[in-house]
Amino acid sequence: MNGTPSDDCEALIVGAGFSGIYLLHRLREAGIDARLIDAAEAPGGIWYWNCYPGARVDSQVPLYELSLPELWRDWTWRERYPGWRELRAYFRHVCDRLSLWPHMTMGTRMTGAAWEEGGRKWRVTTGSGETITARYLLPCLGFAAKAHVPKLAGLETFAGEWHHTGHWPQEGLSMAGRKVAIIGTGASGVQVAQEAAAEAAHLTVLQRTPILALPMRQKVLTAEQQEREKADYEAIFDARRLTSGGFDVGSVEASALAVDEETRRNLFERQWQAGGLRFWYANFADLLTDERANRHAYDFWRDKTRARIADPALHESLAPSEPPHPFGTKRPSLEQNYYEIFSQRNVSLVDLKQAPIEGIVPEGILTAQGLIECDLIVFATGFDAGSGGLTQMEIRGRDDRSLADAWGDGVAAYLGSAVHGFPNLAYLYGPLSPSGFSNGPTAAEIQGDWLRDFLVKLCDNGLTRFEAEAEAEREWTASVAAIGAMTLFPRAKSWYMGDNIPGKPRQLINYPSVVGYSNIISDVAANGYRGFTLA
Ligand code: NA7
User: Fold this and answer.
1) CB of 186 closer than 6 A to ligand 1?
2) Measured in angstroms, how far is the CA atom of residue 55 from the centroid of ligand 1?
3) What is the ipTM of this complex?
């Protein structure tokens, strides 16, 4: 990019994950001059940055791919839950097949943007000081664009190496024969721990809150089997849009409290054996709204999990008698042999509730119960999810107000996409949209299709400016909070609630239903895009 006015485009998409890539395709197909930039050297979004050992998706084939037949007809996966290498290859396939490469500039990081009311344009700055102007600015940053590394005293004195899972070295990193310490036991911590246990001289897992992980039941997939299953793909992709999580099925209609013990256990057992997140998204309807219903699921999970932990002394730390939070109110990650690794002689668990971290010293991590010697520290400590990717950039809207300021007391956005005071900006898969609760490609398609229609409508009517109305934004933001209050999500401290980050305002960060969201945005479109001021 040369930073001259010839860089002008109608729509600038930022981010080459599912949302950005799909939107680029849809906009170009509609005749809109769209371009895409991404800081990464290759497409894949989260699968570019999170290339740590064991990183893989928690949605089974074919849920985590785009529904366009030209993309899936001749694409074959190797595993039921593909890993980051395969996912990156898939993104290359998508860009090839949809001929997107000429419209993408990789290795270009957006650092900020300023709205110019006179020219009705966004002036976007990049890491190398270049400028790109665009009528529409469309950030598609994903939910995990800003890694969270907790402030630990003395980290700069550490003699070994440390990395956050979300910024893993692209060239790879061997853990063989090393003394590895992993801080954090979310999805990322579980995945790295399983790999580290197989090769590290010693692995210490530092756990603050036990993860309520579910068995993945990984499988190698054959091409023949996938060919047969492709007969059902259209139906599966249609169904995906009609569930609350963007998966193949939704929860069952019944309450866990309205059935007898045997019926309840039968459903639990069926979804447990099916594997993956099914025990979470295809369970009783009141699992995430009624504490007593939830407790049945927790007890089932605890007993199943304890049966796999050989050392009874670890039961209370890894699978406590009482739930640390209602089951499923923090994202339940998938595991393959996580509970078994703690039987290995080279693996130990440190419960940070009993031995909090005091700081880092050259030799390792100092806890209240002594030193954990290590030469590699893995921060699997999560992300400033949703809003962090947007607010870490200097985005200045109307009246020179920054987005970080506008969201100082919490995120507010109409339809989880447009912000009052920030004309012609629409972000996808971000805060107050279904992102986080939704399977990524499902939300990317629903939001991408809607935004394409919106921009085409503006263009067809000779309009060049949109802005979310303050009242519409207020109502949407309040509605997400109100729906959240009817669920058990506020009962956990989690990235869903924003409070995994010290000082971040507490609010349900995502809209908890794909189908509900989809219906509302369709209705907004059918009603002349109510809630927007168009000019
Ligand atoms: P998560 O799920 O946010 O997990 C982060 C983990 O790091 C979690 O166990 C945290 O404990 C722990 N953590 C965070 N800060 C600290 C400090 N200061 N000390 C000790 N432990 C800490 O992030 P992931 O990357 O694993 O997964 C993110 C999503 O990606 C996941 O939900 C899937 O959707 C895919 P806590 O639970 O807060 O006590």
Assistant:
1) yes
2) 15
3) 0.99
